[in-house]
Amino acid sequence: MLKNLEELRKSRDWSLQDIADKLGIAKSTYAGYESGYRRPPLHALIQIANLFDVSIDYLLAREHTIDITDRLLQGKQKISIDHMVLDQEECDEFVAFIRAKRDIKKKLR
Amino acid sequence: MLKNLEELRKSRDWSLQDIADKLGIAKSTYAGYESGYRRPPLHALIQIANLFDVSIDYLLAREHTIDITDRLLQGKQKISIDHMVLDQEECDEFVAFIRAKRDIKKKLR
DNA sequence: AAAATTGTGCTCAATACGCGAACGATTATT
DNA sequence: AATAATCGTTCGCGTATTGAGCACAATTTT
């Protein structure tokens, strides 16, 4: 369920003790998360995500479709291209383009 | 922490009993999530996210930016417009489109 | 060789959880 | 209008799950 935790920690060159100190928990507790022996409760998971600066969905290896037409209206969830955040205006034209394209395809049938 | 849960449920016109049945839990349990009286454990949160078809980060109203460029070009990240998934060619076009648009904007300055 | 660090596994106390039940407030049915 | 049904809220209690400490072997450092 949390398959990347150990790799993520080692990529930072942190020991279990290091990360436990950062989170303010016992190293055995964090070891339990990594091994899958225990599942972190929500508040712990959030702190872990903050520490590594990744999304919760990434930690959970969750895949989901991002709908551009819904998404940008939702405020706090942002996506970026080439490390530059996508704004509404940038998307609108492309959305119009795809819609037109689909429309044509539909009429050709 | 999960401030959107009630709104999300009502947007679907579901009662507490409805959603409890869908999730296979007691309505008082789900009511606890909505009110903030209890926090859903991870496995419950995942099921809720699946039910509403949203990301965990959205449920948690977490501010986070994810860069999808690489994943998009590699076909690992799906995006949709009007709830219709884009194919690989369209995904490539999307990235190219955004890049081109930014390029133009840059030159105009 | 000794001492410190690392990761693992275990037990136990404390916490957090899920459920059922009861409640008042609306809404629907007869 | 009276009754029944549905809705959301809250509580207590039994249970499940967690967190921390401790001990251990393996590795590294001094």
UniProtKB/TrEMBL annotation, chains A, B:
Domain HTH cro/C1-type stretches: 5-59
Keyword Acetylation listed: no
The keyword Hydrolase appears for this protein: no
Alphabetic keyword roster: DNA-binding
Any one GO molecular function term: DNA binding
Domain of life: Bacteria
Transmembrane segments: none
Gene3D superfamilies in alphabetical order: lambda repressor-like DNA-binding domains (1.10.260.40)
Name of the protein in its database record: Helix-turn-helix domain-containing protein
Originating organism: Terrilactibacillus tamarindi
Source taxonomy: Bacteria, Bacillati, Bacillota, Bacilli, Bacillales
